[in-house]
Design brief:
- It holds the Pfam family ECH_1.
- This is Enoyl-CoA hydratase.
- InterPro entries: ClpP/crotonase-like_dom_sf, Enoyl-CoA_hyd/isom_CS, Enoyl-CoA_hydra/iso.
- One of its GO terms (molecular function) is lyase activity.
- Belongs to the enoyl-CoA hydratase/isomerase family.
- The structure is a single chain.
- By secondary structure, this protein is of the alpha/beta class.
- The protein folds into two domains: 192 residues, 2-enoyl-CoA Hydratase, Chain A, domain 1; 55 residues.
- Helices cover 47% and strands 15% of the residues.
- The strands form two sheets. The protein has a six-stranded mixed beta sheet, sandwiched between helices. Strands 4-6-8-9 form a four-stranded mixed beta sheet.
- Strand 1 and strand 2 form a beta hairpin.
- The longest helix is centred in the middle third of the chain and has 19 residues.
């Protein structure tokens, strides 16, 4: 196993170059890479580029899944450039933080599943972006945490509570400690842990599995999952029924049923029984 990366110093400088790269594959998967060395900090220009990329991709109806990662193995993203906050107060500070909230919501509300491939450090705003993804794949050597108390602030708490529960969230928030990929998986913070250097490949494989499913149903499932947590059980069941009724007459559904029956027929004729 590779050694854990050295702990970064919070805050980085935004270099004058393109910081967000988008690649597509034939399966309908997009890989969005944050590229702002050395720690992929989300300075304003980077956030603007990332939001623009997400907005453009959200309008692409051929897209089936999205992988979000950081360039290299040192960091997914170490969060904000703290120098940007210096001197801000009142409404200016509120507007600055609302820019961040728009980024988190762009990830959480993206129309297809978003998989965070966490290859190294995920801290501050980078940690929150990771939390906003639908699925998280982390390297064993990745390090992450809700560390805002270290600088006298709060962040990440609502999504963290929803993901790992209040008890574990209290542990992470009050200790402001880092956890590696293995511990993060054990507490349900990430869905899959892989050897160092394999996070992106594993995330792409997972995205490929999603991309192979009927795309309209995947989009509706994502929308449903985003709403049911705020509804009563009866309301959620009613919303699911309406979604089911919407999907049932679609070509996606009928084609998927035909393919399923064809596969079952082949299995039965070969003696596999299913």
């Amino acid at each position: 196993m590779s050694p854990l990366p050295a702990e970064p110093i919070l805050g980085g400088m935004c270099l004058p170059e393109e910081h967000v790269h988008v690649d597509f594959d034939a399966a309908g998967v997009a890989v969005v890479t944050i590229d702002n060395p050395p720690l992929n900090t989300l300075a304003r220009r980077v956030r603007e580029e990332l939001l623009a990329a997400l907005d453009s991709l959200a309008a692409d109806e051929t897209l089936r899944a999205l992988v979000l990662t950081g360039q290299g193995d040192r960091a997914f993203s170490a969060g904000a450039d703290l120098q940007e906050e210096e001197g801000l107060e009142g409404e200016a500070l509120r507007a600055f933080m609302q820019e961040w909230e728009r980024l988190y919501e762009a990830v959480a509300g993206f129309p297809v599943p978003v998989i965070a491939a966490v290859n190294g450090w995920a801290l501050g705003g980078g940690f929150e972006v990771m939390l906003a993804a639908d699925l998280r794949v982390a390297a064993e050597t990745a390090r992450m945490g809700a560390i805002a108390l270290r600088i006298g602030l709060v962040n990440s708490i609502p999504r963290l509570v929803r993901l790992v529960g209040e008890s574990r969230a209290r542990d992470l928030v009050f200790t402001a400690r880092h956890v590696d990929g293995t511990e993060a998986a054990a507490m349900g913070l990430v869905h899959q842990v892989v050897p160092a250097g394999r996070a992106l490949a594993a995330a792409r494989e997972l995205a490929g599995q999603i991309a192979a499913l009927p795309p309209l149903a995947v989009r509706r499932a994502k929308a449903l999952l985003g709403r049911v947590g705020d509804l009563t059980l009866a309301e959620a069941q009613a919303l699911q029924l309406e979604t089911f009724l919407e999907l049932h007459p679609t070509p996606d559904h009928h084609q998927a049923v035909r393919e399923f029956l064809a596969r079952r027929g082949k299995a039965e004729s070969s003696g596999d029984g299913g």
